[in-house]
Design a protein that fits this description.
Organism (chains A, B): Streptomyces cremeus
Radius of gyration of chain A: 16 Å
Domain Cupin type-2 (chains A, B): 60-120
Oligomer: homodimer
Pfam families (chains A, B): Cupin_2
Distance between the termini of chain A: 51 Å
Number of strands of chain A: 14
Protein name (chains A, B): Quercetin 2,3-dioxygenase
Helix content of chain A: under 10%
Strand content of chain A: 35-45%
Order of helices and strands of chain A: EEEEEEEEEEEEHEHE
Shape of chain A: globular
Number of helices of chain A: 2
Chain lengths: 185, 185
């Protein structure tokens, strides 16, 4: 038996609307969203944790570097579970680093550190936790992109309408940095 | 080049003492601790996240169920990355559930829900996040057990001295429940 719940985010979610209830979610069956070529799956959000943390995965094809961005109030974990992901990060003094992460490797990006990543193998997967004293931001992906019912990576990239870039990132503590250069290579 | 830092927890840690610095940790090289037959590896703690969340792994042999316990102020994630782990949980109304979790599966235990688990395959691994409004509790394992330098599972189980059970769990929001019965089987 699979139990599904109606929540503020989905008509049928594996995450209970009642945050006092324990739950299990099988691989891939969290709240899914598509953004560009990536599949984001949320397993727990701010409602479950009194806004202290969240837990999600990002899966995607081998591809281009994503746009550099920064969070003013959000610390972020990158833990690789499939494939290979190159993480680029710049500290608050402007010192840049990059590193290729493979399964079991970990990266930590404190708030106010510019960062980006590039998936370097097909169907790489990253476990993410992204939170800070201001809350959690797991619904960014489906708000900029779109909620998804199907399992698996998007068949076609989901390109946000241009007007969304003006309002959605700010709402979720994301600031994209146009023309940011990574000088690590 | 591997950079190591002196922190309040280790003379040589891959976690920077300065929480504003981004960092990478390769698989297995976080702050390690042994407790009973398990290896616990901390990749990020409360110092990194303004006390909002942590990130650690627990690896262990196929074995017995760990003692049932509960956290008054801590929500906990179980995300399986190797092997198979059976999670037992009881909600605040006394309803019990158990489920065998395999890689990619997820379990969420809200605060005040009694829980336990049993690793059902050799060298299973769980990714954990355990935090709540009162903070994070990633140093429980090394305080009840012992910090470890070596990589890999403990060669001999680390059994805490009896007096530690009287003081350490409470300090980290852990309450063991002697004689708790799982009626799910």
């Amino acid at each position: 038996m699979t139990i599904e719940y109606a929540t503020r985010y989905r008509t049928a979610s594996r995450i209970p609307a009642d945050p006092t209830k324990p739950y299990f979610i099988e691989k891939g069956e969290g709240d899914r969203a598509h953004l560009f070529g990536d599949l984001i799956t949320v397993y727990a959000g701010g409602e479950q944790t009194e806004n202290t943390f969240n837990f999600f995965t990002v899966e995607g094809p081998k591809g281009d570097i994503i746009p550099a961005h920064v969070h003013a109030d959000t610390h972020e974990v990158f833990y690789i579970t499939q494939g290979a992901v190159r993480l680029f990060v710049e500290d608050t003094e402007g010192v840049q680093q990059e590193k290729l992460l493979t399964p079991g490797d970990f990266g930590f990006v404190p708030k106010n550190c510019k960062h980006a990543y590039r998936m370097e193998r097909e169907h790489s997967q990253v476990v993410g936790v992204a939170a800070g004293p201001g809350g959690t931001f797991e619904r960014f992906f489906e708000t900029l992109g779109a909620p998804a019912d199907a399992l698996g990576l998007p068949r076609e990239p989901v390109i946000p309408e241009p007007h969304k870039f003006g309002s959605v990132p700010e709402q979720f503590d994301v600031r994209f940095l146009r023309d940011h250069e990574w000088r690590t290579r």
